[in-house]
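Researcher: Last one for today. Full complex below.
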Amino acid sequence: MDYLSHWLTQDLLLVLGLGGVATMLTRAARSERWSRAWTRFRGDRTGIIALCVVCLYLFIGALETFRVPVGGGDTKSLLDFVVGNIPDERSYSAPFANQVLTDTKAQPDPLNSSRHLLGTNQLGKDVFVQTLKACRTALIIGGFTSAIYIPLGALFGILAGYFRRWVDDLIQYVYSTLASIPEILLLVSILFVLGQGLGSISIALGVTGWVGLCRLIRGETMRQSERSYITAARALGQSHWNIITRHLLPNVMHLVLINFVLGFSGIVLTEAILSYLGVGCPVGTASWGVMIDSGRSELSRDPVVWWNLTAATTALFGLVLSLNLLGDSLRKAFDPKRG
Amino acid sequence: MLNYLIRRLLYAVPILLGVIFLTFLLFRVVNTPEHAAINALGPKSSVAAREEWIENNGRNLPLYRQLATHVKQLGTFDFQPSTVTKRPMGETFLAGVGPSLCVTLPGFILGLWLALVFSLYQVFVRHSAADRTITLFCVAMMSVPTMVYIIFGQAVVALGLGWFPVSGFHSGLDGVRFLVLPVCIMAIAGLGYDARMFRAVFLEEIAQDYVRTAHAKGLPATRVLGRHVLKNGLIALITLTVGQLPKLIMGTLLIESFFGIPGIGNVMVLGIQTSDEPVVLACVFLGSLFYLAALILTDFLYAAADPRIRLS
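Model: Here's the assembly. Have a good evening.
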């Protein structure tokens, strides 16, 4: 797995991933349903604001993911060039304080840098920078998980809804079995076996996450299959493959988009819980979950260290709230009657 | 009725077999014997000790024989004892049921009640500014991780204001003060999601003909909502609430662990954090058993709530 952590692979994956999503969205937007939805969406102020906030998070995450070599085998992310000159301290320091937080208060311990906007954490790292860097973790986990569960869910959903009979029975059996294990326990047992790491988390979340999407797509495909355009396509002698990719897939893609946006928020929240349980991100990763987890002990010490927890919670809350609002707006735009 | 129960139970059997097979795949096939031995004995254990462990636990046998023992063990509830505490699994779980129920049941009921009140009020003032504000508030509440509610509750209400103890558990009446905070947090943590879902259900219900009839014969709006709509909406809510049960497990997991309540959730967290394979395995299996039982129960509640539905 060495080549996966190479900076060039990561850059390529990032560009390919973002480019792929952008291409898919622009291609989909050509259809009538999507252009009508886009017109409605533009009139929705909450949705537009939420979209802007999500894009900001994506941009920061992309900045931190995109790495360039700086010589001597070292790499630096683009974000490091912007905020990288902030020095580390020896331990905690409060926001805007001019000295390191000490329990004894015997002698003042001046800071290396003049001020820290959100203070520093136990290792003396600037909390503001750490909060920004954690966008990368969220972006990577969300991106990889979606890359696993969306094709799985959409494919199985369409297959079950289109072919019905034994295909449907089989797929239904598989997902009823998966769904009958409480999600968190299944996640934990998969991580337990695979070990910690961003890749394992994505695999675990991807394996458990496709059930909801599959159910949704299956139902919609069944509804669409009854429509006359599918009958017409069949009467014209189109192959199953053509009907699925040319006719069914474009007509269920909007559900995939909505599910992707709402699913992303769920992934970010679950990552936080997994990190608390000790099966999430490895120690040392900048992640909101890890930061919130450490906030637990920091609140009970004296003087109270509240900035770490507050920064992580606010950042996570901002992303999840915007994703939820964006998902709601999209749903309204695509389906104005039921929204 | 009995006929239906038997059929439902028979439907659950293949799913349960699927769960057993899935756990086998995860814990016996993907999880290599060496990895399992390291988990059980710790990273500093000697190679000889690991090999002995693999031998003793039958992990060097051919896979089909391992599968047979795995099915037999789970099928007869003959779980291996915990590798950390060495206590048998049955004893551990039975000791945990009481404390778990003390938190989960009141928390669940309180949360349900709060969500009903919120959503009914929203439907009462539907499509107004108040409705939109509450909806936004609900989305905001959904966007906060449960841990933050717990940490905040412990820091402000328990440590700051000193109203309740931070953590701990006592049986008997004396223990109530330990339970107030976890129960409230459990109710609040799920409120946003539930209230939004209930609102959608009630809004669909309010478009029905019988609501117009009730209004037309002059019943006050509160009575129409509180009696007619609530009763009919409850049927849809039963399925939705049972669908929530797996999430409930996650909530108790965190709450019990943060508040030091010696329930099943705490056993799970400890098992997860100490890489205690038998505990995790037993939790997965019992969790799905619990969920399947709840699904069957829903069908019966459904029939009890709606006389139109016949169990046949």
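Residues 177 and 260 of chain B are 14 Å apart (CA to CA). Chain B touches chain A through 48 residues (CB under 8 Å).
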